[in-house]
Amino acid sequence: MERRPGSRVLLAVFVVGILASAALPAGAAIRPSEQPLSGVDQQSPATAAADRQWSSPVATTGQAENELHVEMELSVAPDNTGTITVEATVRNPDDVVLLGIDAGGPVTVLETEGFERRGDEYRWDGRTDRPSFTYHLAVNESTDAFLGAGVTAADTGEWAILSPPRAPVSYAPGVTRIRHGQTAVVESYTVAGEGVVTDGFVYLGPYRSYETWAGDQTIRLVVPLAAAMADDPRRVLETLTNASREIRIGGRDETVTGLVAPSTVDWAISGTATGPRTFWVRDSARVRTAGNVWIHEYVHTRESIATGRSMAWLTEALATYYAAEASLRQRLIGFDEFRSTLEQGTTHTSVRLANRSTWNYESDYQKGALVLGRLDLRIRAASDGTHTLADAIRRLQRHDGTVDAETFARAVANVSSPGVGEAARRYVTTTATPEPWTQSVHERRFGYETARFEYEFRNPRAVGPNWTRNLTAEGSPLQLLPGERLVVDGVVRNDGDAPGEYDVTFRTTPREAADRRRVSGYLPAGWTWTHPFAVSVGSTDRFVAVFGNNPTAQLSVAVVEPVRNVTVESVSVPSSAVDPGATVSVTATIHNPAERPARATVPITVDGRRVGTETVVLGSDSTTEVTTTVTVDAAGISEVGVGKATVSVRVGTVTSTTTPTETFSEPRTTGPGGQGSGPGLGAGAAGLAIWLAAALLSTRDGVGDLE
Fold it and tell me: What is the per-residue pLDDT for 473?
C-alpha cells in the first residue's frame, strides 16, 4: 500500500483538504562492534540542508493553471508535547470562489495573515497575495487494529515522526476549474531546525544520517539521536546493500531512505513502508532473524504491481519471503530458522489466498510466503536453474493492467512449465497448501552453500568454593550440592560447507531470566567454538539447561542433599620409620558408595588423638585420594589414622651407617696403565702396590735394576 501526498477526492464543487494526520501504516511488517563499511558515509552539510525541504514533482516543475500551492514549514513544539508547529503560506489563491482554513480537530490556529475570522471560520480576505497562517497540529495517533495496539505517529516534544501533513485548507474552485474537473492542492515542506522531510515521512529532531552506494542505488539511513539501535547502523546498511543487489524482482529507485524509530514510545508495529521510496523501522529490530524487518520494508520499495482482489496477498507475501530468503543467503540465519518461517504457512489449511474473506491473522504473510517459496523452488527445478521466482515477478511488474490469479499463473508458467503454472493457480485459488523442503534440496536448487550449526554441551562440572568435580551427563540428572555451581562448555560447530554467523541462547528452564545468555559469532565451515556457562543453584533446585535446539545441548540438573559418611579404604605413609618430631605425609583412598554425591569431613588422628580434619567432596560411587601431613613426637610405635583406617609408624633415632673411605689417585706412568683411581687402601698396601708395579714394568722392559 503506497500513499502519495497531494492526492485528493473532489466532492461536488466544494473541496475540503484532508486534515493533517499521520497515516496508518502501509506494508506493515510482521511483529516479530562497530566496524566501518566501505562506501558508508555520514551526512554532509549539503545533504543535511536538502533533508529539510521537499516538494512534490508537480511543485518543482512550475505551477499549472489549476493548482493551489501551500508551503508548510514544520517544527517541534517543546512546550506543547504531542503537537508540532506548522507555518503555512498559500500561493496563487486567485480564481477561487472561496478559500478558508479547516480549523478544529487536530488543527489549532495560532495566528493568521490575510484571513478574516468569522466565528469559528477563517476566510481569505480576497486581497492578500500570499495569505498565511500558523497552527498547532496534533500528531499522536494510536490504533488497536489487527496490526497491534500502539501509536502510528508520535511527538515527544524533543522529536516527532509522522507522515507529511495535508494542508488544512478548503476552497471552492472557479468556473475554469469546474470545466476542467481538476482539483489540485500541492504541498511543499521545509523543516525549521533539525529534521528530515521526504515524500513518505517527516522526522523532526536531531539525528545522524548514513548512506551507501548499492550499485545503481543510494540507500540512506536516518538515525535519531534518541534511537538506541539493536544493530550497528553500518551493519544494517550492509544488509540492505546486499539485499538491493541480490533481490532482482524489479527496478530500483535512485535513492531509498529508511528512518529508525526510537522505541521510547509504544509503536503499534515493527516497521512500515511509508511510500514508494521510504520506510521506517523500530530501533529494536535486528538483522539476524528470518523476520528481518529491515529487508521486509526495503522489499516494499521494490514492489510496483497493481494487484486485483485475488492477488491482494502478494504484497506482504513477497516482503516476508524475500526477507527470510535474503537473510539466509547473507548467512544471517540458518536453514532451520528459514524453514520455520515457511512452516508457519502450513497452519492456514482452510485459507484460499484469492478470497480475502477466508484469511486468518497474517494469512497473506505466512501462507503467501510459503506459496511463493515453493513456487520459487519448482521454477528453479523445472528450468534447471535458469529461472527463479524473480523472473515471474518482473513479468508481473511489466504487465499492463491489474494482475489477477490467472495472470500470476501464466507468468509462472512462462518461466518454468505448464505444470508449475497450474500449481501456482491451485495454490492461490484453492485451499491447497504446499510443504516446506529440506536443506539438501535447498542447497541443490538454490545454488549457494550454507552454514549449518550444531550445538552441544561438553565437560559439565560442579564447582564449589575450593573444589571441582567432573559430572557425567549420561543417565539420571546431574546431581549438584547446595553451594555448588554448574559450569559447562557450550560448543558451537559449523557442519555446513560455508562460513556463517550464529546467534544462540543459553537458558535454564524453569528459572530466573538472569540465567539467560545470548551468544553470537562468526564461524568458518568445519570450525568449532566454545562458550563457557556457569549457573548458581539454590538449596533445593531442579531445572534443565538448554543451548540451542539440539537434544545434545540439554542437561537436566537436580540439587540434592549430600551424603555425610564415606569409606576410607586404605591409608599409607612413604616410610614406616621416622625420627621424633618428623612430619609424615599421609595418603588415604576414600570411596563414596552412595547413589548421590558426598560431602564429608574425615578426622585425622595420631595415636587416637584428633590432630586435624579433611573435607572431601565426591560424586556418587566414586573414589579419590587425599594427602595430608601429621607430626609424630613420642618414640615408639605411633598409629596414624584417617577416619577408621590406620597405619603404624616407628618413631625413634634413625641413623645411616657408613664406612669411612679414602680416595687416592695413581701417579702418572708411561706404561699402558695410564691414569686411574681405585678404592681407598692403607699406606703400606699402597707402597707395596707401587713397588710391585714398578718391578713388573722393569722386568717387562728388560731392565734388572732400578735407577
Answer: 67
